[in-house]
Design brief:
This protein has 724 residues and is of the alpha+beta class. Helix 2 packs antiparallel against helix 3 (179-216) and helix 8 (318-355) packs antiparallel against helix 10.
Length: 724
């Protein structure tokens, strides 16, 4: 009945998106507002536990802001400031708990009121050790270790046909043995199984308590109730305790019912883990359930042999050790190999569900922990094969048997539970990750499907990432790249002029890749350049993104930019040639001359001329006399304010250094996710002058050359009515 109830509960549960992940906000992350917003609305992918989901508004320079929190719908949190927000940068910190999977997530984003935001994108907490995560990991280690061993003990009694005290591990089939040895082993088996059951119940209760306190952000009876009784995953955590307690009470009187109860406890663990928030939900939970059942049989059997017989084998005669090797180990071997094969098959299926693509094994932290788990399982399988196939036949054969072979056999067998503990620790760490890679990608896809904004801030790169962009016709190809040795991994997106996903067919050339949403590819490749092919209608464009940079030189790059900007602002004169396009068929050229401290003259390709001196501006087109007006609505022009790269330098990377005609040069990559704009500057290192600039932003692609530094220049106000 317990199994049927659990299956019914899982079947009735809706398909989950994968945690209550952040979907979007109003105002957008990274945006600059010219006035105080009347409200801040956050939208999530899943219905929220309204008692546990929270958000707060703080000033970046310090201090909370009084707000009223309201829920306008099941998936939205709305903050209403008690008073108009003053000029400054603000941050919204949120904490979500889904009613569908019970997992807690945290993140933050920033916006500015009459100033720039503190960051350009949304930040999601991805560390499993955040918020005292080591407590959750530790509780999970205790739970998995005790429950798997307890489940293995009960399941093996049923699978191997044990009746009463006639178990496969210490039953009468082992006679003739010295009565004392067999009786001690039987007493020890009962004690070990009972202790494991009691420990599993306590560990399940501890794990549920620790996770409930984390979700509720503190200990309170109301918070525990809201977490443990408000969703399938919470009820599943309570179910683990209840099913384990039932199995403990019945295992000696009704082994089959106890085995069904402990199997249900493992099912509840699967339902309350990451499988409970994957899709298709029922199939992924069933896969993880089978994975846990077979793992309990395999790992539990190995550990039980060592726990029950280990002490006796150390002090007993060789005849007893040989009896265990001839009768107990082969009996367990009948189910160990099938259990291992099922563990492997279901593990691969779970890997694909949680990762989305195989290359996430080395690209993501989750994948690297999973890779360690796979390696540990391989080591344990190798150890089992070594002692069962290579050492045991030699030990039991009268001709080849030796004390050295026997010692090696038992040493390998005793080491296997230690590998099992390491596997359990890896599993516990995986279970506490906020979002596996595939679900993180699904959150990105959902975020990409939001209605258009103008402009739309983009994600700020991590410390070890490079954000660069290039145009592909009228579209923008933006990349967030990571480099490890010769390999480059990352994400590229194709964006429209409003920085929305273009949906155009996209391919990263000569790379392993997978989709991450409309106009998006995750990839892994080699080389100094990432080549991205985009088809826009009938045209095919290829954008080349630089993929190499000095990963530990960001501070130096920012200092170099600051000094170069200061040097350019201090010039007496300079010329600037600017070429702009918005895609095929469009082109404009403008030639600028600047004379310190407050003079500017420029002429466009259409021969339209402009002269600026301080607050005054003169303008004329071909065939029209000079007309006088005010510069920029009455403001005063200054050459010192002309060069403003630092305002777009939220992230600065040093791409490369080289020598050209004997002159040392450096190229910097700048990124501002809020505008958003990507810049590349070529700086001469000998005199810190900027020689070239390349700007990529929505529908606006500019190449600029700077020359004639400090050469004699004379810009004079024209005479009104002059048609020269």
């Amino acid at each position: 009945m317990a199994l049927l109830a659990l299956l019914a509960l899982l079947a009735a549960a809706p398909a989950a998106f994968g945690h209550a992940a952040f979907l979007g906000s109003d105002p957008q992350p990274g945006v600059r507002l010219e006035g105080s917003p009347p409200r801040i609305a956050l939208t999530f992918t899943e219905p929220l536990n309204r008692e546990l989901a929270r958000a707060e508004l703080v000033r970046v320079d310090g201090g909370d802001v009084a707000v009223k929190t309201v829920s306008s719908s099941a998936r939205r949190l709305v903050l209403r400031p008690a008073a108009a927000l003053e000029r400054g940068a603000y941050r919204v910190d949120w904490h979500s708990v889904s009613t569908e999977d019970g997992h807690a997530l945290e993140g933050s984003f920033s916006f500015g009121v009459r100033t720039a935001a503190a960051s350009g994108g949304h930040s999601l907490e991805q560390s499993p050790l955040a918020r005292d995560g080591w407590l959750r990991v530790g509780a999970r280690v205790l739970l998995y270790a005790a429950l798997l061993l307890f489940a293995g003990a009960l399941l093996l009694r049923v699978v191997l046909g044990a009746r009463g005290d006639d178990s496969w591990l210490t039953g009468r089939r082992l006679e003739p043995l010295e009565g004392a040895d067999l009786e001690r082993a039987q007493v020890r088996e009962r004690a070990v199984t009972t202790d494991l059951g009691a420990f599993a119940v306590g560990a399940a209760a501890l794990a549920a308590l620790v996770e409930a306190v984390d979700a509720a952000q503190g200990f309170s009876p109301a918070g525990l109730s809201d977490y443990l009784l408000a969703n399938v995953a919470g009820v599943g955590r309570v179910g683990v305790v209840g099913f384990a307690l039932l199995a403990l009470a019945l295992w000696q009187r009704s082994p089959r019912i106890a085995a069904a109860a402990v199997a249900s406890a493992l099912g509840a663990v699967a339902a309350s883990g990451h499988a409970g928030s994957a899709s298709p939900r029922l199939l992924t939970i069933l896969n993880d359930w089978v994975h846990l059942l077979s793992g309990a049989v395999w790992l539990g059997g190995i550990a039980l042999i060592v726990l029950v017989w280990g002490p006796a084998l150390r002090r007993s005669e060789r005849d007893l050790r040989m009896m265990v090797a001839r009768r107990i180990l082969p009996e367990f071997g009948r189910v160990a190999l099938p259990a291992f094969l099922i563990v492997s098959a279901t593990g691969v299926a779970s890997l694909l569900v949680q990762l989305g693509s195989v290359d996430e094994l080395w690209r993501s932290s989750y994948g690297r922990v999973l890779l360690i788990k796979v390696a540990l399982v391989g080591l344990l399988a190798g150890a089992s094969w070594w002692h069962a196939v290579r050492l045991r036949p030699r030990m039991l054969a009268p001709v080849t048997s030796s004390e050295q072979v026997e010692r090696r056999h038992w040493r390998v067998l005793r080491a296997e539970p230690m590998l099992g503990v390491a596997i359990v620790a890896a599993v516990a760490l995986l279970a506490t990750f906020p979002l596996p890679p595939r679900q993180l990608g699904e959150a990105d896809e959902a975020l990409a499907s939001l209605p258009a904004c103008d402009p739309c801030p983009l994600r700020r790169p991590a410390r070890d990432e490079l954000a660069v962009a290039e145009n592909a016709g009228r579209l923008v190809v933006a990349g967030w790249l990571r480099g490890t040795g010769e390999r480059v991994t990352g994400t590229v997106r194709v964006l429209t002029s409003k920085n929305r996903p273009a949906g155009a067919p996209i391919t990263v050339l000569r790379a392993r890749q997978s989709s991450c949403g409309p106009g998006c590819r995750r990839f892994s490749t080699t080389g100094d350049v990432v080549r991205v092919a985009v088809r826009d209608g009938e045209r095919r464009h290829v954008a080349d993104l630089p993929a190499r940079w000095s990963r530990h030189e960001s501070a130096r790059a920012r200092g170099l930019l600051r000094r170069a900007q200061t040097r350019m602002r201090g010039l007496r004169s300079v010329r600037q040639t600017e070429k702009v396009t918005s895609g095929p068929g469009s082109f404009a050229r403008t030639d600028y001359r600047l004379q310190a401290p407050n003079r500017l003259a420029y002429v466009t390709g259409g021969r339209t001329e402009t002269v600026v001196v301080g607050r005054a501006q003169w303008f004329r087109a071909p065939g029209i006399t000079w007309q006088r007006g005010e510069y920029a609505g009455g403001g005063a022009f200054s050459t010192r304010r002309w060069f403003r790269w630092s305002s777009y330098a939220r992230d600065v990377r040093l791409l490369r250094e080289w020598r050209q005609d004997g002159r040392p040069l450096a190229q910097l990559a700048l990124f501002d996710p809020g505008t958003p704009v990507f810049l590349r500057l070529t700086v001469a290192l000998d005199d810190l002058r900027v020689l070239r600039e390349r700007m990529t932003t929505g529908g606006h692609f500019t190449k600029t050359i700077y020359s004639h530094f400090n050469e004699p220049a004379r810009i004079e106000p024209p005479e009104v009515g002059d048609e020269r």
